[in-house]
Amino acid sequence: MSPVLVLYYSRNGTTRQLATHIARGIESTGAEARVRTVPAIPEYMTPWPDVPEAGAPFVTRSDLTECSGLALGSPVRFGNMAAPLKHFLDSTSQEWLKGVLIDKPACVFTSGGSMHGGQESTLLTMMLPLLHHGMVLCGIPYTESQLHDTTSGGSPYGAGHVSGHSDGKLTADESALAFAQGKRLGELAQQLARKAS
After folding, report:
1. What's the pTM value of the predicted model, to 2 decimals?
2. Would the CA dihedral through 94, 96, 97, 98 be positive or negative?
3. Which residues contact 103 (CB under 8 A, 6 or more apart)?
4. What is the DSSP letter of 139?
């Protein structure tokens, strides 16, 4: 089976932390997680810079084409995804025309500074381009007990983090929900890959 792509943009590190837990959840199913990021917007004005010295490499078109599923993560920007991630998605018309993501599972995750700072609207708006690509969306079911207990990030729409509560560290509930979301995505990717073969 092809890797499950975990694609995110992170400025202060908490969205990257969520991506790490989602990747671990994916790998707990036996699937491979491929973690990638996008460069900041000013760097789009020239050719992409070299692969970062630390952290995830930049995403490529082949990462998107080859993936068996996608986890998409962004910090909250006025109730929407950050511009670097949106810029990348806006450039995927060729992949859309070819239908490379149709019937592949996807999920979304986010981090923001305050409890009511737009996490849920960010998750919902991140889903829209994935629906246009024909992807099958999965959230977090309420069988995950942390959804009942969390006083910070996480919702049925996707994993989340509220940085105002934690000095940049994920809470135990946030980490567990991100792991659970990755595990569910990995399981769905395997099930859908088996049906397609």
Report:
1. 0.93
2. positive
3. 134, 135, 136, 192, 196
4. -
